[in-house]
Design brief:
2 copies of one chain form a homodimer. By secondary structure, chain A is α+β, with helices and mostly antiparallel strands. Chain A folds into 2 domains: about 140 residues, Nucleoside Triphosphate Pyrophosphohydrolase; about 60 residues, Arc Repressor Mutant, subunit A (Orthogonal Bundle). Chain A is built from 6 helices and 10 strands, in the order αββββαβββαβααββα. At the A-B interface, α1, β5 and β6 of A face α1, β5 and β6 of B. The first copy, chain A, binds a DNA duplex through α5.
DNA sequence: GCAAAAGTGTTGAAGGTACACCCATGT
DNA sequence: ACATGGGTGTACCTTCAACACTTTTGC
């Protein structure tokens, strides 16, 4: 049956062409490192595996790429199926393809990283997963397969991205205080930032719109709430402006 | 036969496990964007395809990943087999996996970028290729498949890498003049650089060793020849130094 | 001596870092 | 009134960009 499928695919061109190659092929998967924002930690979305290998172990959400869907579509589908989330930002990280990384057989996984606004996404487990939940990034259990290495690479990538592209805003609620933004940067970069300098730089970019609203219901002076002005960002980008924060 | 192979692979674990998935799988390939340095241009290594589809068209060297080799090993093997080159730097770019990118069937390609020192590598054609040769990057023929998009992504990546990591030196001969280095940066970045400022910055990093030799046999004042001090770079990196040029 | 590229410093502007106190609110 | 985090400006230093002429060699 599988062989028959391949033969059909091989005959799809305008004239008969040989099947692309004769050898057994690696399986192709996607895995997603999904970041969210907790109270005072960066969080990571994990699923508890229901099947061997590594049944009962926590792992990155992911699965196999279908023959008729793009790689990114596969990543989004698996995230929705396995964990019930659909991120705003989802990009490729890189392929992980060591020969022994899956004990069943050769599986090459194209790792992705994604950001979701924590509040909107109550994860729910589904296909192949007993459970799905958030863990603080640095209080996560040891992961199945080579997923610890994938997470490490994704964290490194996030640290770079957040400084050069306005992706941090995709972790925050639509409206946020400058302190929340600064805390996000401190969590991601793993070091404290100077309050005055941080605010100066952020505001100097003129990408934050002051909503005029205050965050009441807090037991101290209520902070101003800002909104990231994506339209302004895209306009400025076209004019050669380069985002840079810390 | 192919199905039998898969079944064997599925039974390889410590206890019987189901085959990872039942569906037809995408084929997995690698493609390599290999940069070299010409007299006054950046050059790109291309192969002329011998087989359909796109027979007679120029394309990136590449091919299918074997089930028992890592992705990078596949890229190096294909480069050696198809074009007879073996680069010093070879890194993943990203996967290209649009459903229609190969007319035969679904093929996901993991693109790589690589740097070789031009002189050392006379390309020679082999497997599946009628010819292999260097083209000036911006005088290249239109490429097969989606390879033009892959090249564009690789150039963009190279532009970033060269500013933040000392990869440029892997395009130059072991010993080079500051003018050669500057010309390389100008080619990659696509803009002229100020001679005095460039030299000031390069030398301030203290990563170039003055060989004391001069490049004779040139019809003007002979330039000093420098060597990139990789050991010093690695020592400084461990101490937190960050390479940055332009 | 002429052509060709090598080599060399200074100045002004901008941006980065360090740093401490008062303010508005809830309890 | 006190606890909690919100909000603000300046001075110094480093870094970056702009800029032109003299030197050495081959022919």
């Amino acid at each position: 049956m599988r062989a028959a499928q391949h033969t059909r695919a091989g005959a799809r061109g305008t004239r008969p062409m040989a099947f692309t190659y004769e050898h057994p092929r690696p399986a192709l998967a996607v895995d997603c490192v999904v970041f969210g924002l907790g109270e005072r930690t960066l969080e990571l979305l994990l699923v508890e595996r229901d099947l061997e290998p590594f049944a009962g172990r926590w792992a990155l959400p992911g699965g196999f790429v279908r023959v008729d869907e793009s790689i990114d579509a596969a990543a989004r589908r698996e995230l929705l199926e396995e964990a019930g989330v659909s991120p705003d930002v989802l990009e490729q990280l890189r392929a992980f393809g060591d020969v022994g990384r899956d004990p069943r057989e050769r599986v090459v996984s194209i790792a992705h990283w994604a950001l979701v606004r924590g509040e909107r996404h109550r994860p729910r487990a589904a296909t192949d997963a007993r459970a799905a939940r958030w863990f603080p990034l640095d209080a996560r259990p040891p992961l199945a397969f080579d997923h610890d290495a994938i997470v490490a690479a994704a964290v490194e990538r996030l640290r770079v991205e957040v400084r050069w592209r306005p992706v941090g805003f995709d972790l925050l609620p639509e409206v946020f205080s400058l302190t929340e933004l600064q805390r996000l940067y401190e969590m991601v970069l793993g070091r404290p930032l100077d309050k005055r300098n941080f605010r100066k730089k952020v505001l100097a970019m003129e990408l934050l719109e002051d909503t005029g609203r205050l965050d009441e219901g807090v037991r101290h002076r209520p902070p101003r709430l800002y909104r990231f002005d994506r339209a302004a960002y895209e306009r400025l980008s076209r004019e050669g402006f380069a985002f840079r924060l810390e």
